[in-house]
Specification:
single chain, mainly beta, Immunoglobulin-like, Ferric Hydroxamate Uptake Protein, Chain A, domain 1, Maltoporin, Chain A, 3 domains, 22-stranded antiparallel barrel, 5 helices, about 60% strand, globular
């Protein structure tokens, strides 16, 4: 009986095995495919997983970007592809009846991937649950946009106020930036700009030379709205912009050639590679720009002394990242920027010569903390020839300036992630020293030197800060930071025709707190709020640089006090399906606002002086929405209402300089898998004044920009870019009442050669 049962069971098992083998020989299938990026280049080393009913197999793409899963049983599989710096992509593959080819194209920059930012907290963290209002512009969007300069990119960010000319043509010491209506004009820069976390606001003026970081060198732009003085000190009173440069992960050679109206020519070439067993990653970039320019004066008002405003600029950038060991890494970056600009009148010209070097190291310590240190140095030289009109046909140089500044600084920071409750703690110190002078020759008549004026001094700034992140539970965070700053102005002097007026050393001590909190009510809705205090110390130019022309005199003021800000915001974060957005209400009060106060006529010249002229207030609403319909199509809309005005003093009721009440923008980004990229953009900017006295009005305007490219080869794109496509005419410089940039259309080629 037992023997019979054993034989029967053996027979059944053998029959099942034979049947299974025969079935497997008949129906085994495979999945194969190639993984590429949106430009058609293969993605090497991407992780590919095929899963079904709790079982999975994994592989990686080879040097040709291909993968294969042989000998798969029939059925439906989920294939998922992940690669560093690309978004994860998955799809269902049906192997019921036949083998299948499943190719993937990954979107760079992470349309759906986690977005990180370092400008908000001085260490890199996700924006997903950040208790502050931020915007991040990724590399793909920067390279495929109509904007040709960084400041043009920032014009489409809610809450950002810029002067109305871009970095290609603007008077070089004027480029300034403010956030949330704090005032942007010729007097001051009220937001901080960082390059890889290090400040690049000019040492003498505070101006920002945007073109020192060409588009091809940028990985992302980070914008933090609201004061960050609690982490970064002066200039960060209104907000912070961090320009994060690109580091290659494999060999790459890319660039572009562009030519268009006004004989505008732009070229860029970048080469990068990873060498020494992946321990060194380096990149080199060169950028050249020239244009015959355009007339700033309306055609009906044009005279023989008026000229087109044209420029030539050159830029060289280099960066290397080093991996010394598993726990130590560093970088070094160097750059040189040179611009010659011919103004809109005969003989008017400027020349900018700027060089900089920076480096740093990061150490992972045994207690799981990180210690980082940074060093930086830059030298600025700006030569300016201003002119006076004799008549409609003749001008002469009325004053000539030689501005020099040397900036040196370092920082050190320790940070550590602790328990779930004490999420993160950072401690740090910053030091910055500026030595700056302005040498001016004044000519009241042609070729006749009337006065020689030198103004300058030394400013040192030392700050210590701490920041802590607390998470009482999984849905909430409290983020607090506190900073103490010591500013010291020494060797202040104004030398007029050899006679020196020396000023005593001045010291300012300031404390800046920030407290922010966020609570996630449900997955789709979170509430956050922040209170902050910030400041801006007067620049060397505001304290020690006096200015003269045959009819005008601008006096500096060594007694200026620091501008002080108190403010806050309440915001709502909304994320549901393909939509994410913010609604923010903001309120700021600014004491000791620095502006130009009229003194009267002195020696026949109309005279003004830098003065702590007023107390101001700005309040408003920001509405930000993003729709990501697919991996290749997204839409962004912003609207900002800002009510910014003087609330004390003789200018009470005046709007703040460069702070329009209404600003709106719309952006569409489309990246087709077959190689078509489209990026139309539109913005409306309300009228405003270029100065707080309301003597320099600027027009409201609507601008439409457009970018389109098409891949004609896997490594070659053709593109067209149109700025101010409808040729809107508007006053962009309120003082000179001159026009903004007209329509400018350019065509070009762009190539991208990666490692094969």
């Amino acid at each position: 009986m037992a023997k019979s049962l054993f034989c029967s069971l053996t027979s059944i098992v053998l029959s099942m095995l034979i049947t299974s083998a025969a079935y497997g020989q008949e129906v085994n299938r495979s999945i194969t495919g190639t993984v590429r990026d949106l430009n058609g280049a293969v993605v090497v080393g991407a992780a590919v997983v095929a899963s079904r009913a709790g079982q999975e197999r994994s592989t990686t793409t080879d040097s040709q970007g291909t993968y294969s899963f042989p000998d798969l049983s029939p059925g439906k599989y989920r294939v998922t592809v992940t690669a560093q710096n690309f978004q994860t992509l998955s799809r269902e593959v049906d192997l019921t009846n036949s083998e299948s080819a499943a190719d993937f194209q990954l979107a760079a920059g992470g349309v759906a991937a986690e977005v990180t930012i370092s400008a908000a907290t001085r260490y890199e963290r996700s924006t997903e649950d950040l208790p502050l209002s931020v915007t991040v512009i990724p590399r793909r969007e920067i390279l495929n946009s109509p904007g040709q300069t960084i400041d043009d990119e920032l014009r489409y960010v809610a809450g950002v106020n810029l002067q109305r000319d871009n970095a290609d043509v603007i008077f070089p010491v004027n480029p300034s930036i403010a956030v949330r209506g704090l005032g942007v004009g010729d007097t001051a820069t009220r937001s901080l700009v960082l390059l890889d976390g290090l400040p690049i606001n000019g040492g003498f003026w505070g101006a920002v030379f945007w073109n020192r970081a060409p588009e091809y060198t940028i990985e992302r732009l980070e914008v933090v709205r609201g004061s960050s003085s609690s982490l970064f000190g002066s200039f960060a009173m209104g907000g912070t912009v961090n320009i994060v440069t690109h580091a290659p992960e494999q060999r790459e050679l890319n660039g572009e050639l562009q030519y268009g109206e006004n004989q505008r020519f732009r070229s860029s070439l970048q080469y990068g590679d990873v060498v020494a067993n992946d321990r060194i990653a380096f990149s080199l970039n060169t950028n050249y720009y020239t244009t015959n320019g355009f007339f700033r004066v309306p055609e009906n008002d044009r005279r023989p002394v008026d000229e087109s405003e044209h420029a030539i600029s050159k830029n060289f950038q280099g960066r290397s990242n080093f991996k010394f060991s598993d726990s130590a890494r560093g970088f070094i970056r160097a750059g040189y920027y040179d611009q010659n600009r011919i103004g809109d009148h005969q003989l008017a010209s400027t020349h900018v010569d700027l060089s900089d070097v920076a480096g740093g190291v990061d150490f992972d310590l045994n207690d799981s903390s990180v210690f980082s240190t940074r060093l930086f140095y830059s030298r600025e030289n700006v030569l300016i020839d201003n002119v006076r009109e004799v008549d409609d046909t003749t001008t002469f140089v009325s004053n000539s300036h030689d501005n020099e500044a040397d900036i040196f600084g370092f920082s050190a920071q320790w940070s550590k992630a602790f328990s779930r409750t004490v999420s993160h703690l950072s401690l740090g110190v910053d030091f910055r020293r500026v030595d700056g002078t302005n040498n001016q020759d004044v000519f009241n008549s042609p070729n006749t030197l009337s006065a020689e004026i030198l103004g300058g001094g030394t400013q040192t700034a030392t700050g210590v800060f701490a920041e802590i992140s607390l998470r009482p539970n999984s849905r909430s965070e409290i983020l607090g930071s506190l900073r103490y700053d010591n500013f010291r102005d020494a060797d202040g002097r104004i030398v007029t025709d050899g006679v020196t007026q020396a000023f005593p050393t001045r010291t300012i001590n300031l404390v800046s707190p920030r407290l922010a909190a966020r609570y996630q009510f449900i997955d789709q809705l979170a509430l956050r709020g922040a209170y902050y205090e910030g400041f801006r110390a007067p620049t060397l130019a505001e304290r020690y640089r006096s200015f003269e022309s045959p009819t005008f005199r601008g006096l500096s003021n060594p007694e200026l006090a620091a501008e002080r800000l108190r403010g806050g915001e309440v915001g709502v974060d909304i994320r549901h399906g393909i939509f994410d957005g913010q609604v923010n209400y903001l309120y700021n009060r600014l004491n000791n606002f620095v502006g130009s106060a009229e003194v009267g006529f002195i020696d026949g010249k109309f005279t003004v002086m830098n003065t702590n002229i007023a107390k101001t207030r700005s309040q408003g609403v920001e509405i930000i929405g993003n729709l990501r319909f697919t991996d290749y199509l997204n839409f962004t809309g912003n609207y900002t209402f800002t009510d910014a005005e003087v609330i004390t003093g003789p200018l009470t009721g005046n709007e703040l300089e460069g702070a329009p009440r209404n600003v709106a923008s719309l952006l569409l980004n489309y990246y087709a898998p077959f190689g078509l990229n489209l990026s139309p953009r539109a913005r409306f900017v309300d009228d405003a004044f270029q100065d707080i006295t309301h003597e320099a009005p600027m027009d409201r305007h609507f601008i439409f920009d457009f970018f389109a490219s098409y891949r004609v080869h896997r490594n070659l794109d053709l593109f067209v870019v149109a700025e101010n496509l409808f040729n809107k005419e508007y006053i962009a410089d309120g003082f000179a009442q001159t026009l903004g940039a007209p329509r400018q259309v350019s065509v070009g080629i762009r190539f991208n050669l990666g490692r094969k």
